[in-house]
Design a protein that fits this description.
Elements: H1 2-28, E1 30-35, E2 45-47, H2 56-63, E3 69-73, H3 77-88, E4 92-95, H4 102-114, E5 118-121, H5 135-144, E6 148-155, E7 158-160, E8 168-170, E9 175-180, H6 191-207
Parallel strand pairs: 1-9, 2-5, 2-6, 3-4, 3-5
Antiparallel strand pairs: 6-9, 7-8
Helix pairs in contact: 1-3, 4-5
Length: 208
């Protein structure tokens, strides 16, 4: 019984509370938006580092207010909570990852993009290595010919968790810089070249 209650709290109560805290922290911060261009009219792949995923739903909503997006979320137990959090923040989900359900996630992602729905992915998730690109994002972008947009945040006050991805949580009453890169494509590139290009653009977007 205790395990059932604990699971219910972790998977349903906490995600709702976390989503409210994300909105509250965002509200109390001064926000600066550094978007290189307007959002593409065609469906695209939104790429973010795993350690920065918490506030990217709000970033996307400002970047493309009328857009529809689904994020690829692990089928592991932790993924249930993440799916609930992003749902409360207005984002759909696709179940699967590089370690479990990858083929299913790839098929659903390709279908979503062809239907005009943007797809978000953490190419170093769900377990790392940190800031390394998995094959999945390359497959999705190349099979759909979709462009990639890199997103990141830079808060001036934050907590950084002692986790493999150094998970970043902005503190209230500071400034958050929301960033989106120029859209780019990786068509006709080899797997290695594509991964190098994605990582280069993501690191530039993160550090600029």
């Amino acid at each position: 019984m205790k395990k059932t209650i604990k699971r219910f709290v972790q998977q349903y109560i906490l995600p709702y509370i976390i989503s409210l805290l994300v909105r509250l922290i965002n509200f109390t911060n001064k926000k600066v938006y550094k978007y290189k261009t307007k959002a593409p009219t065609e469906a695209f792949v939104l790429s973010m580092w795993h350690g920065q995923l918490l506030f990217q739903a709000l970033n996307y909503r400002k970047y493309k207010p009328k857009g529809c997006i689904k994020v690829i979320v692990s089928e592991h137990a932790d993924g249930v909570a993440i799916r609930k959090i992003v749902k409360y923040l207005g984002v759909g989900d696709i179940q699967g990852s590089s370690t479990r359900g990858g083929t299913k996630a790839l098929i659903k992602s390709i279908k979503s993009i062809k239907e005009g729905i943007d797809v978000a992915i953490t190419p170093d998730g769900p377990k790392g290595p940190v800031h390394e690109i998995s094959d999945g994002i390359v497959a999705i972008a190349q099979k759909t010919k979709a462009k990639i947009v890199c997103c990141s945040i830079s808060p001036n006050k934050y907590w950084q968790l002692n986790s493999w991805d150094s998970f970043l949580v902005p503190k209230p009453f500071g400034t958050i810089v929301y960033k989106m890169s120029e859209p780019f494509d990786i068509n006709n590139l080899s797997l290695l070249a594509a991964k190098k290009k994605i990582k280069k653009n993501m690191m530039e977007n993160l550090n600029e």
